[in-house]
C-alpha cells in the first residue's frame, strides 16, 4: 500500500513536471519562423463582449477586468488570476461550475449537489461568488445562486483579499462568472446531451443584430434538463433561460440589458454519513456510496431565481470613461430535507443512523449598483489608469427553518419510515427559527495603475460602511450593527524579457460577522485579512501558453472562538486567528498546435494559530483543505490530415489526505481519479463523450465531523452533440 501511494504521487509529480517542461521546450523553440507560424494558426475562440477582455484564444485569456475593474493585461496585475474559458468548460465536459473548476489550482469540493456549486476552498477560505462583476446573494449553502455552465463565457478566479475593489468578503479569493451576452455576432446553435443517471438535456444559443446598421443586437440562451439524482428515487431537473439586448449607437457608447431565470427541482444528492463505515472501520463493513439518507415520500427541493440588470459604458474622450453596472436579483427556496446525524447511540451494532428532518424556506432579494469613472492619461514618461468608484448594495433576507429529530435508518438494510410535517409540532421538534435581515453596504474606492517603462505599480484604497438589521421574528428581538473598514492593495510588477513578469503585492480584506453576540453583550467586529504574495508569470513568445507560480501568506484575525471564561455558553470572543500559506503552480494553453494542457499543483498549510479550544494548531474543516493537490488535463486534436477534427483528452486529479473533525481527530485518505474525453468537430457539428472518474473509484472527499462525511462523485458519462449554422 505504501509503495502504491508513493508510486501514485510520483506519477502525479511527473505529469505536472511534464507540462512545465513541455512549456519550456516550447519556449526554447518558440523563436523559429515555423513555430511562430504554427502559433498564428491556432484555432481562435471568439469571446463575447462580457468576457475577460480581447485576445482570448482557446484556453488562454490574456486580459482581465476582474483583477482591476479596468481592461488590463493579466501580466500587469499583481495578484494571481486564473481564467477558465468556455473552451475549457466544453473540452473537459463540465456540467456545473463546481466541475469547471476541477483543474484550477487548489480547488477542492465535497462533490456534486443540486443545491450548490460553492463547496470549495481557495487558499483556505470560502470564496465569494460574483456574476459579471457584481456579487450574488449571500445565502445558506443549501440555497446558493447557480449559473448553468452553458450560459458561461468564462470564469475568473482572483486570488487573495479583494475588498479594495469588491467590498466585504473572506481573504481567499473571489469567483467571477462572465455571462454570454449579446455582442452583435450572428449565433445559431442547438445541442443535446445524454448521460448516465438518465440525464437528458437540450439547449440553444441564438443571437444576431436586430437592425441593418447593427445598432441593436440580441441573444437568448436556454437549457432544459431531466435526470435522476445520484442517490435516492427523485428526479433532478432544471430549466434556465438568459436573454440579453445590446444597444451600441457608436464606438463610444454601449448599453446591455440582461435577464436570467433558473428553476431547479430535485433532492439533496450528497449524504451526511458517520466516520464509522466511511473513513473508520465499521463491524458491518463499508457504508454504500449509494445509500440514500433522505425520505422518499417527504424530501424535495424547489428553487427559483431570477435577475435583471444592465451594463452601461460611455467614453467621453480619450481620457475619461464612465461605467455603471446594476442588477436586481431574487431567490426563493422551498426545501424539505432528511439527513444523517451520526451513529444512533442506542444501537451498539453501529448499523443505525440517527437522522434529522428540516423544512427550509429562505428568500433573498439583492440590489447592486457599481459606478466607475476611469481616466487614462500621462504625466511625462509615466502612464496612469485611474479608477474612481462608488458602490452600493442592499440585501433583504428571510430565513424560516423548522428542525426536528427524524426516524433512525438502518444503513445496511434501509427501511424508510415515512416523515410528515407533523413531526415539527411534536415532542422531537427543536422549534421554528424565523429571521429577517437587511444589509446595506456603501463603498468608495480609488485605484491608480502607474506604468513607467517596464514597471507597473498598482495602488488602491477603499472605505466601506455596512448597516445590518437582524429581526428575530419568533423571539421578538432586533439587533442592529454598524461596521466600517478601510482596505487597500499595493503591488509592483516588472514586465521582463522572454515573456516573464514577476510581481509582489500586499492586500487586505474585511468581512462583517452577522447575528452573533459577544460574551460582553456587544456585537463582533468584522474579521480582517491581510496577504503578502509574490509570483511569476510566463507567456512564451509566439505561443498560446501561460504559466503561473506564486507563494503567499494570509492571516485572518478577529476570528470567533468560544468564551474561555464560560466554555459551556454560546457566547464568543474574537481572539482567533487563521494562517494560510502555500505555493501554487499552473500552466494552461497549447504546447503545440495539436496538444493543449491544463496543469496545476498546490501545497498549502492552513492552521488555527490562535484559538481558545481544541482547534488550536489544527486545520479548519468546514471546507476540505488537503495539504497537496495536483491535476493534469491534456487534449490532442488533429488539425490536418485524415483525422482532422478528431481529438482525445485525458485527465488525472490527485488530492492528498486531509484532516476531519474540528479537533482533527479524523484522517481522510488521499485519492486519485481519472477523466477522459473523445470528440469530433467540423464546420457545423461537434460530437463528444466525456467521462469523469472513469474507473468509478469510491472515495471520501471530506469530513466536517465524525457524523458528517461525504463521498465524492461516482463515474459520470455524458455524450453531447452540438450543431451550428
From TrEMBL:
UniProt xrefs under PROSITE patterns: TONB_DEPENDENT_REC_3
InterPro entries: Beta-barrel_TonB (IPR000531), Beta-barrel_TonB_sf (IPR036942), Plug_dom (IPR012910), Plug_dom_sf (IPR037066), TonB-dep_rcpt-like (IPR039426), TonB_sidphr_rcpt (IPR010105)
Membrane topology field: Multi-pass membrane protein
Ranges of residues in domain TonB-dependent receptor-like beta-barrel: 246-694
Taxonomic superkingdom: Bacteria
Gene Ontology BP terms: siderophore transport
Alphabetized SUPFAM superfamilies for the sequence: Porins
GO molecular function: siderophore uptake transmembrane transporter activity; signaling receptor activity
UniProt keywords, alphabetically: Cell outer membrane, Ion transport, Iron, Iron transport, Membrane, Receptor, Signal, TonB box, Transmembrane, Transmembrane beta strand, Transport
Regions annotated as coiled coil: none
Signal peptide (from-to): 1-26
GO cellular component, one term: cell outer membrane
Subcellular location field: Cell outer membrane
Span of domain TonB-dependent receptor plug: 74-173
Protein family per UniProt: Belongs to the TonB-dependent receptor family.
Protein name listed in UniProt: Iron uptake receptor
Species of provenance: Caballeronia terrestris
Amino acid at each position: 500500500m505504501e509503495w502504491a501511494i508513493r508510486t501514485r504521487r510520483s506519477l502525479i509529480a511527473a505529469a505536472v513536471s511534464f507540462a512545465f517542461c513541455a512549456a519550456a521546450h516550447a519556449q526554447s523553440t518558440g523563436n523559429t519562423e515555423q513555430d511562430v507560424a504554427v502559433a498564428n494558426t491556432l484555432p481562435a475562440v471568439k469571446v463575447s463582449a462580457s468576457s475577460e477582455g480581447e485576445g482570448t484564444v482557446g484556453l488562454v485569456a490574456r486580459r482581465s477586468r476582474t483583477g482591476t475593474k479596468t481592461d488590463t493585461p493579466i501580466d500587469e496585475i499583481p495578484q494571481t488570476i486564473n481564467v477558465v474559458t468556455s473552451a475549457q468548460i466544453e473540452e473537459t465536459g463540465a456540467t456545473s461550475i463546481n466541475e469547471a473548476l476541477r483543474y484550477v489550482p487548489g480547488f477542492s469540493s465535497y462533490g456534486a449537489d443540486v443545491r450548490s456549486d460553492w463547496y470549495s476552498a481557495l487558499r483556505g477560505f470560502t470564496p465569494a461568488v460574483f456574476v459579471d462583476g457584481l456579487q450574488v446573494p449571500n445565502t445558506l449553502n443549501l440555497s446558493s445562486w447557480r449559473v448553468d455552465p452553458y450560459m458561461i463565457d468564462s470564469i475568473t478566479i482572483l486570488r487573495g483579499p479583494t475588498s479594495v475593489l469588491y467590498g466585504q468578503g473572506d481573504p481567499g479569493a473571489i469567483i467571477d462568472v462572465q455571462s454570454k451576452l449579446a455582442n452583435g455576432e450572428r449565433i445559431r446553435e442547438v445541442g443535446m446531451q445524454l448521460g448516465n443517471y438518465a440525464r437528458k438535456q437540450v439547449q440553444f444559443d441564438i443571437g444576431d443584430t436586430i437592425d441593418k446598421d447593427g445598432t441593436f443586437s440580441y441573444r437568448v440562451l436556454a437549457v432544459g434538463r431531466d435526470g435522476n439524482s445520484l442517490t435516492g428515487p427523485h428526479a433532478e431537473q432544471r430549466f434556465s433561460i438568459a436573454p440579453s439586448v445590446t444597444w451600441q449607437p457608436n464606438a463610444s457608447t454601449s448599453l446591455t440589458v440582461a435577464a436570467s431565470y433558473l428553476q431547479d427541482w430535485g433532492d439533496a444528492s450528497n449524504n451526511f454519513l458517520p466516520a464509522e463505515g466511511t473513513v473508520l472501520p465499521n463491524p458491518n463493513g463499508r457504508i454504500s456510496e449509494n445509500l440514500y439518507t433522505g425520505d422518499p415520500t417527504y424530501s424535495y427541493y424547489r428553487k427559483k431565481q431570477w435577475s435583471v440588470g444592465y451594463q452601461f459604458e460611455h467614453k467621453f474622450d480619450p481620457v475619461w470613461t464612465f461605467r455603471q453596472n446594476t442588477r436586481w436579483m431574487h431567490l426563493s427556496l422551498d426545501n424539505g430535507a432528511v439527513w444523517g446525524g451520526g451513529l444512533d447511540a442506542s444501537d451498539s451494532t453501529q448499523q443505525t443512523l440517527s437522522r434529522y428532518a428540516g423544512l427550509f424556506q429562505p428568500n433573498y432579494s439583492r440590489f447592486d449598483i457599481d459606478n466607475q469613472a476611469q481616466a487614462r492619461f500621462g504625466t511625462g514618461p509615466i502612464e496612469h489608469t485611474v479608477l474612481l468608484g462608488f458602490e452600493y448594495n442592499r440585501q433583504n433576507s428571510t430565513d424560516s427553518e423548522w428542525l426536528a429529530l427524524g426516524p433512525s435508518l438502518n444503513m445496511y438494510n434501509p427501511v424508510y419510515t415515512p416523515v410528515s410535517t407533523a413531526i415539527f409540532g411534536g415532542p422531537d421538534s427543536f422549534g421554528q427559527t424565523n429571521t429577517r435581515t437587511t444589509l446595506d453596504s456603501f463603498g468608495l474606492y480609488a485605484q491608480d495603475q502607474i506604468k513607467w517603462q517596464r514597471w507597473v505599480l498598482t495602488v488602491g484604497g477603499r472605505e466601506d460602511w455596512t448597516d445590518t438589521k437582524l429581526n428575530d421574528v419568533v423571539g421578538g428581538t432586533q439587533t442592529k450593527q454598524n461596521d466600517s473598514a478601510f482596505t487597500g492593495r499595493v503591488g509592483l510588477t516588472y514586465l521582463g524579457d522572454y515573456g516573464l513578469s514577476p510581481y509582489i503585492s500586499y492586500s487586505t480584506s474585511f468581512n462583517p460577522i452577522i447575528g452573533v453576540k459577544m460574551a460582553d453583550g456587544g456585537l463582533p467586529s468584522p474579521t480582517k485579512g491581510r496577504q503578502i504574495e509574490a509570483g511569476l508569470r510566463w507567456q512564451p513568445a509566439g505561443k498560446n501558453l501561460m504559466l503561473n507560480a506564486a507563494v503567499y501568506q494570509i492571516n485572518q484575525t478577529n476570528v470567533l472562538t468560544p468564551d474561555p471564561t464560560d466554555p459551556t455558553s454560546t457566547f464568543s470572543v474574537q481572539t482567533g486567528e487563521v494562517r494560510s500559506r502555500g505555493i501554487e503552480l499552473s500552466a494552461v494553453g497549447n504546447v503545440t498546435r495539436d496538444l493543449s494542457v491544463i496543469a496545476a499543483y498546490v501545497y498549502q498549510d492552513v492552521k488555527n494559530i490562535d484559538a481558545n479550544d481544541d482547534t488550536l494548531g489544527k486545520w479548519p474543516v468546514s471546507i476540505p483543505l488537503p495539504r497537496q493537490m495536483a491535476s493534469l488535463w491534456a487534449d490532442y486534436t488533429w488539425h490536418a490530415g485524415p483525422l482532422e477534427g478528431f481529438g482525445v483528452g485525458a485527465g488525472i486529479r490527485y488530492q492528498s489526505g486531509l484532516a476531519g473533525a474540528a479537533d482533527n481527530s479524523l484522517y481522510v485518505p488521499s485519492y486519485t481519479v481519472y477523466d477522459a474525453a473523445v470528440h469530433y468537430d467540423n464546420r457545423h457539428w461537434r460530437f463528444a463523450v466525456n467521462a469523469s472518474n472513469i474507473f468509478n473509484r469510491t472515495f471520501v472527499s471530506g469530513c466536517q465531523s465524525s457524523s458528517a462525511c461525504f463521498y465524492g462523485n461516482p463515474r459520470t458519462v455524458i455524450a453531447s452533440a452540438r450543431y451550428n449554422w
